[in-house]
Amino acid sequence: MTRGRWAATREALRAGLEELYAGPYRATMRRARREEDDLFMLVVLAEALGVPDPAAYWSAELLPATYEEFHAWHRRIGMERSPLDHVGCC
Amino acid sequence: MLLSGSGGGLSDGVDRDPRLVLVSGKGGVGKTSVSCALALREARAGRRVLLVSTDPAHNLGHAWGTALGDDPRRVLVDAGHVDAVEIDPARTVQQHLRTVGESLRRLLPERMHGPAEQHLELARDAPGTHESAVLERLAELVVGACHPSSAYDVVVVDTAPTGHTLRLLALPERLTTWTESLLANRDRSERFGAALRGLGGGEEHVDRDAELRRVLVRRRDRFAGLRDLLVDPERAGFWLVATAERLPVAETQALHTQLRALGIPVRRLVVNRRSPADGAVLTARRAVEDQHLAVLADAVPGVPLTEVPLLPGDLTGEPALAALAEHLA
Q1: What is the pLDDT of residues A45-90, one digit of tens each?
Q2: Which of B123, B179, B192, B218 could form a disulfide with A56 if both were Cys (CB 3.0 to 4.6 A apart)?
Q3: Cβ–Cβ of B119/A87 closer than 8 Å?
């Protein structure tokens, strides 16, 4: 084999092995992060979901930063359409 | 005893002079009168005083014979002066929700502005919103005023009757814990995110994470700042007001116990409206009062106790308040 082809093959092998080993860990990390983020979203939206929240005054401040995530969140926790009547993301 | 050392604070006659005095006690025992008289005393001693009421049934304006509101208004000019505030929680809630609303509207498409408003309205009526607003406004006024470079030397807070005030005082610690648990959640999320990036995963959410953290940290620091101020005997202290009667004494004991549990220093007891030994009825009353006073002094040792005689006339207006202030020297 020429030097160039050997380098390309080695690179493909390395990438494949990395995916094989790192892939499951990436999935685990991604899922773990989502769990934390979903919990956070529940805290922020508690009052809107009908769970009385004495800290609603303070969690309201966190709404603007969590807005982007809202659609991805409700799909992820198994709701086809937005559970909040007044947030029409879909 | 007239003027404290550098940096402002009360001429309290004790070693340390706190900048912040909170006046509390059972309803109707004269908290407002004592707060106003204290403020007057300090102003006459050349200090710049901020006098704040957290009582939903505000009496501060009545004491000075003027209408007061959520912005400081000057009620007395002497060697120093007194500016008075009656906290309006509704206004604070309105401002808070408006600020959040503005951020949301910047991020949302036009069609969702109405729905976003509706969403925020839920927070307006949530349990705990009223108390939170009082706390926020109080923190804003007090922490600012107690800063070394502020326009005030002393802050006197006329608080709502006992129960309300205890719940209010417990909030900074609880809210600090609340924000810290959310920050712990953010820590974990960001750690997983960092691990994900290390494994070649996505670069999602970085700006959003930073923004959330920024908001949470700022809020946590404000709560922690107020909490630290309240438990610092060099900067803050409570005056408990009572009359020498059974229920006020019992409530004062309970309040003292609760404040100690919160770590908040109790600086002085003020017992109002002592009956003079003048005629059969008042003399008899005085004897009963003496008994209640003994119970109180016994239950709360080590806290200076000031007795104030029953004074003729209403305790409103500068002359009457000055007469009361004489007894608080």
Answers
A1: 888 888 888 899 999 999 888 887 887 787 777 776 666 655 556 6
A2: B123
A3: yes
Q: Residue B182 half-sphere exposure, CB side, CA atoms within 13 Å?
A: 25
Q: Rounded to an integer, what distance in angstroms lies between the CA atom of residue B129 and that of residue B120?
A: 12
- Select the residue of B104, B120, B132 nearest A58 (Cβ to Cβ): B132
Instruction: Give the closest residue to B75 by CA, choosing from B111, B37, B106, B108.
Output: B37
Interface confidence, given as ipTM, is: 0.81
Chain B from 233 to 262: CB within 8 A of any A CB:
none
Q: Where are the beta strands (DSSP E) in A16-78?
A: none
Q: How far apart are CA B59 and CA B66, in angstroms?
A: 10
Please identify among residues 84-123 of chain B the ones whose CB lies closer than 8 Å to any CB of chain A: 93, 96-97, 100, 103-104, 106-108, 111-112, 114-116, 118-120, 122-123
b or e along A80-90 (b: 16 or more beta carbons within 10 Å of the residue's beta carbon)? eebebeebebe
By C-alpha distance, the chain B residue nearest A90 is: B112
Task: Give the pairing type, strands B266-274 and B236-243.
Answer: parallel
Tens-place pLDDT, residues B51-74: 999 998 899 999 999 999 999 999
- The two most distant CA atoms of chain B are separated, in Å, by 91
